[in-house]
Amino acid sequence: MGSVPAWARLYVACVVAGALVCLAPVPGVHVPWWAVGLLAALYAGCEHLTSGGSGGCPPRWHTPVLLAGAFLLPPAVAALVAVPGALLARVEQRPRGLRRVWRAARLGLAVWAASRVHGALAGRDAVAQPHFPDALVPVGAAVLVFCAVLTALDGGILALAERVPVRNAWRGLFPRSLAPAAVHGLAGLMMAVLWRSHYGPVAALLVLLPMYVSCWVFEQYHRERAAHQATIRALVQAVDIKDGYTRGHSERVGRASRMIACELGMDDARIEVLRFAGILHDVGKLGVPTRLLRKNGPLTPEERRVIELHPEYGHEMVRGIGFLGEARLAILHHHERLDGGGYPYGLTGDQIPECARVVAVADAFDAMTSTRCYRRARPVADALEELERCAGTQFDPEMVEALARALGRHGWHPAVTADGDDQRGNVPPQSAPLRAEAGS
């Protein structure tokens, strides 16, 4: 909604008008204004915590407050709970005023509709004297309506303001919102039941405490993960700048390593570590003189020995990065061969860590299926045939078979790793270190 089209502004105006109609007071209905004020203040405080800089915090963790208001209050005043927080929330993108009004109107309409459905199904009586099988039916219906209203409104704004094709604007919105809303609905029900019990509103507010703690944990996880990704990205960019020959190679080896790990049935945490290993397998090139990486012509035996030190350089560079785990061993040993003819230590068979055997196959496969300045990429079938020919001597047959199965299921899209007109960043064919071209 940066530059908002006229039709989108009209749409927002219509939603705001609908919300104002829903907020109109109903004569003869008792309104507990103190409860409205307390819930509105609580929601505004939660909104401030979310928008006040905790970038990893889930933006809907305070939805239970809105749903508790829908379960406790008449529809017109329940909709008011969302308004102050939405209007006072921090907004990064322009136009800020329009975005605040839009958010307040859509939440007000959704809460109003949820409260109407909940009340129509005698949900407030079930909250006052809870019988949980009976209380869950109106709550479930209210949650479905809450999600449906938000989905309908959000799809419209995507189509009009963000110019998303109409056939795609609503796709997937409802299923994605339903599971979180169901959890928030149960939390809102707990708040409402405690609020109406002899423990009172203070006990109801305690329901938010575990949600806030989970939000804090979620935020710490995302901060740590962002730091991990930034570290890896910086190292890979440094390698790509120094050795244009392998530009993009690291990311593809990470992708192929992940495919092999998935095919082997490894758990998610280990799959992620194998992906890191593939991405960083050549980080040791930062310790190799640039003139050797960019040399045009055959390498001398001495120059080859220097380049073959890059696995050890890489291991030293990352040994202090704890989150990499066994990926550090893959970086050190990805040029070992099963027959003992590899480097740096000439390990054989099972002496080579499993993670290194995975990366070795992924590295060789991408090297063969990527276009280099001196030759075109091999077809995937030819590369697999070469890997199978070298299985048992250079590569682990189990890893080769896993890659073949993964490629049969998902395919592969090789890419150019070096431009044909950038001759400085390429190694001639005479210097390819392994028969099956185990990368670099």
Automatic annotation (TrEMBL):
Q: Which residues cross the membrane?
A: 65-89, 101-123, 135-161, 173-195, 201-218
Give the range the annotation lists for the signal sequence. Answer: none
Domain (HD): give its ranges. 246-368
EC number(s) given by UniProt? 3.1.4.-
How is this protein named in the record? HD-GYP domain-containing protein
Q: What class of enzyme is it?
A: hydrolase
Q: Enumerate the SUPFAM superfamilies for this protein.
A: HD-domain/PDEase-like
Organism of origin: Streptomyces bluensis
Record key words, sorted = Hydrolase, Membrane, Transmembrane, Transmembrane helix
UniProt GO molecular function = hydrolase activity
